[in-house]
Amino acid sequence: MKFRFFKMRFRRRINKRRQQVEDLGQQAERSVDKLIFKRFSRIAKVRRFVIGWVGLIVLLIGGILLQGFNLANYYQSVRPVDGGIYREGVLGTFSTANPLYATSQVDSTVSKLVFSGLLHYNVRNQLVGDLASSYELDARGTTYTVHLKPNLSWQDGQALTSKDVLFTYTSIQNPDAQSPLNGSWQGITVAAPDPLTVTFKLPSPLASFPNNLVNGIVPEHLLKNVAAVDLRTSDFNTVKPVGSGPFAWNAIEVQGNDPQTAQEQLAFVPFDHYVGGRPRLDQFVMTAYANQEKLISDFEKGQLNGLAGLNDVPEALANDSDVQIHNAMLTAGVYSFFKTSSPILSSQKVRQALVQAAEPQAIISKISYPTRAIRSPLLKEQVAYDPSILQLKPNLPVAKSLLDQDGWVVGKDGIRTKDGKPLTFTMVAADSPEYTLVTSQLKQQWRRAGVDLKVRLLDSQDFQNALAYHDYDAVLYGISLGTDPDVFVYWDSTQADIRSANRLNLSEYKSAVADEALESGRTRQDAGLRTVKYRAFLQAWQQDAPALGLYQPRVLYLTRGNVAGLTDSVLNTGTDRYNNVQNWQIRQAKVAN
Q1: Which of 35-49, 509-523, 525-539 is least confident?
Q2: Which fold has domain 82-115+245-327+557-565+575-593?
Q3: Which of 8, 127, 211, 451 is least surrounded by Cβ atoms within 10 Å, i.e. has the fewest?
């Protein structure tokens, strides 16, 4: 009974609450209908007011968003930032990183990244300290004292001192080491009086000597137990070289067994204690390509950031808007060297005629990159350059007259002859599109004067052999002139001798007047005095015409997109593009101003 009572009471409470919920629902429906739906009919009367407020709200929101966007752009901008992996492709093969032996393009590239020298060239092509803080010259002009920067270190953590510098240059001087730098260091005494000082005592004054201090320094503690005769083949050169340059050796991977298509990929990481500051890139990967087509293909596909080693821009890349073309003019000159010991070219009048029958400016106008004419054995920026003493100007009538005076008679075919022999000689040049163009132009220009030029275009190895043995009548070649006017090795009589170290007097030019001027000019420190001393050499060179100056060459470097820190400045060598490599940046991001 009691159970039933509670059951009925529980039901009444549920029914009551259900009724309350229904009443509330009906009341909510009446309120919505009264307050919302019945008022829709009034919207038409106030629509302008509503639209105005809605528009104002939208305008305010849009203004706030726009202001925020503009303020973000004002206080932030897209700038280069640190990080990223730079991938560079270079045409050639890798053989050594050791700066005592690195001469090829690939080897010089690796050596420049890993090693640093006492001095180096900055982005303005000025000679400044690298490992060295300063240097001074004694009153006699024969002893240079170089002071090292404190707290220098190798990439393996060992301290770098004057002992390493001493070891480097005594190794170069050792004939058993067979370094190609040996010829420039004969007769020089190197000493290390204390850990931060190195002295170089020269047999006679040499104003250009500081330019010899840019080669990389090698570590004594890793190489002192290697016999000089074994330095060239030491594992140090190819397995894990240790330097003090901006990047440290990390790894090498060889891809492919065919020498014609093989690739060598070398990876480098930033050296935290590099004297020029830790590089901004996370990694530098250089790949040496034996095959030019593969190099171009990988760059075209975007697999490389940079490309070096080509003479001309490939057609496939010429119209690519993302490709940056860097034409860095070299402190060098392309000349046609006349071998004065050759029967035809031994005549001064013939050589003068060849100079005046040529039109270098017409040749330059056909070259695919901007450059400027060379009309002297010196560059315009060099001390002692004299604009009043330049090579003979183009003048075809005068050229013909000189040949007439020398007994050369024009034949029916337009070619001159003398004593039954035609006025013909052979020019050797490297087989490249650029030199093919230049030699064909010279052939046409000299033909107008009655000269028959034969051209031999040779591959790299055969051309180097022809240079070494002077196997030519004339040779088209580019020589490095640098920043100093010391051109002794190219024009002094001693450098034509087969016994000379490099035999770089390609014209085999011999002049007592030029010899004396060259010797006097290179031993003077004062710029004004050097100018006076070199004047006689410039005059002799002008009149003797041992060569025809043509133009300054360039080094071509391609990048995909912009590389911050890479500047198109005048360079001494192609690898001098790395003079600022520690500041290269390839990534971009929005950063606060």
Answers
A1: 35-49
A2: D-Maltodextrin-Binding Protein; domain 2 (3.40.190)
A3: 8
